[in-house]
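TL;DR need structure tokens for one chain.
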Amino acid sequence: MRIRFGYVSTATTLYNGSPSKTMTFKTYTQLAKDERFDRLKSITAGNIANTLRILYFNAAHEISLYRMSSSLVPLATHPEVLWDFISPFRSEWQELGDFIKQKQMRVSFHPNQFTLFTSPRPEVTTNAIGDMAYHYKMLEAMGIEKKSYINIHIGGAYGDKTTTINRFHIQLQQLPAHIKAQMTLENDDKTYTASETLTACEQERIPFVFDYHHHMANQCEEPLEELLPRIFATWEHTGLPPKIHISSPKSEQAFRSHADFVDLTFITPFIAQLKKLAQDVDFMIEAKNKDQAMLHLVDELAKTRGVKRTSGASVIVK
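>> reply
TL;DR here they are.
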């Protein structure tokens, strides 16, 4: 069984390497009108340049799994801005995409918690569609829109899960089919369990990104060993290994919070379950120390009996 490892957004090892620099709408309105577009372009150019630096960093460390920042473009979806963030950077977006394809990297996006299709408020659904379209446009500009995914949560329960899930399926129909084809769903740590999320994925033919830490914080009645084959089946039509989010609790008191690094003892039972199924998987590390936590975990796991390191960020579990 092969496990590849990746991390989220920022390579903390790089100096001044944030791909998520932004500005508030208030700051935008305080600028002279002829300065606003220049500032938007300047920040976006810096974020794209740092993303390219991160991709080079990943290639140097043989990291083929990476979640790109959702904040690459400031105010991209603000209803009073809605600027063209593709045309001024066509060559830069293409450069990112060409490098990703050349190095055969698997990249993704994860919009914020407000991008959901369960709200009874129509404007929330409208905003979610706009946010999903924004992420898809970036993938499209890079030329990787058919092989990359946009991950979201189901959302809130609003006091009635049955009604809310029905509303989710109805409102999801508003999302354009080509964007829906590139979305994934993830179980959360408070509301929708792995079982509930999996059922929604199966109904909508959406790949399921399983979060182990969330599952441990919000367990369902069904044993995980029964769910995993069904979870993996949701990925079969993609040609990609199932993606799994990995983190560990900050403490017993703050169990849902992510620790700076991943506690290997916390995930060891899960790796043992995966080993029985002999299923290749990709681990997206969501620890606070990002790339450092990911590389530390690979180092630590590689010292375990029966594990062989095959690259900077992948292992074989025998």
